[in-house]
Amino acid sequence: MRQVEVHGPDDLRIVDRPSRALDAGEVRIKVAAIGVNYLDIQERTGVYPREFPYVPGGEGSGIITELAGDVDGLRVGQRVCWQGVRCSYAEAVVAPVWKVLPVPDEVSDQEAAAILLQGLTAQYLATTSYAIQPGDVVVIHAGAGGLGLLLTQVAKLRGARVITTVSSTAKAVLSLEAGADLTVPYDELTTVAAGNAAVVYDSVGQATFEDSLTCLKKRGTLVLLGQSSGPVPPFDLSRLGRLGSLTITRPTLSDFVSTPAELHDRASAVFNWLATGRLRLRIGATYPLTQTAEAHAALEARSTTGKVLLIP
């Protein structure tokens, strides 16, 4: 099978490798679509270091082609998706059965690959990291990205007033279409939101951190969920008291889907929103697996909107 291997920060290769034998509790899946996430770039560039060479990727969709002898509840030929399974940039993936989710009939293969990581993230951010309440002012950075568009919609489902930051007029249009009440350039955020937000969702990090704090009202919550502009510098926690008893949290999806029950409950909510039209998914671009480098370059340059997919 063909797969992508990372041999260095700027060295992505398409190689042919045999697919390994299944262990107990595993399934083999012929891949239909692969989700591309900023984490994939951060691992490749050393923000979150991995040992070279490795196969990137952690989510996708496809069709089961083989089951280990002890696997129940799934069948060969079934459409499934997964998240949190390494080595997903490939034509075939071996996954632990508990991380494999059946794809509802109403959801396409590409939608399943595009929705899972960012949909689950939007769900736990809005319900658990900070439980959005009706009337809350919510600030979402990078409002036209794949996560930003989904999180905006979930926040609106929970009755929030949503303000997003965007970097262009075209991205502002997309954010407004997703339900944002107001979109602003990054450098204008504090003029409209200072001291008003119950929660700020910040995936940008270093460049937006101080403005995010400025936007929070007393006892507000800053949810740091990424660092596309670089890591936040060392921070004196005593400032949180002086700024109004603020809270900062740095969640990671894996801690919110760490059991089969929690994964299936959160995924069921996301798929229900999607199937009933309450959540609209934007797939901004698809690339063949052989153009993985181009897909990464587009995402890294922030020239994409919505979700980026690879197609084997």
TrEMBL record:
CDD domains: QOR2 (cd05286)
Cellular-component GO terms for this entry: cytosol
InterPro entries, A to Z: ADH-like_N, ER, GroES-like_sf, NAD(P)-bd_dom_sf, QOR-like
GO molecular function terms noted in the UniProt entry: mRNA 3'-UTR AU-rich region binding; NADPH binding; quinone reductase (NADPH) activity
Protein's UniProt keywords contain NADP: yes
SMART domains: PKS_ER
Domain Enoyl reductase (ER): 8-310
UniProt keyword annotations, A-Z: NADP, Oxidoreductase
Pfam family, one: ADH_zinc_N_2
Protein name: NADPH2:quinone reductase
UniProt source species: Kribbella voronezhensis
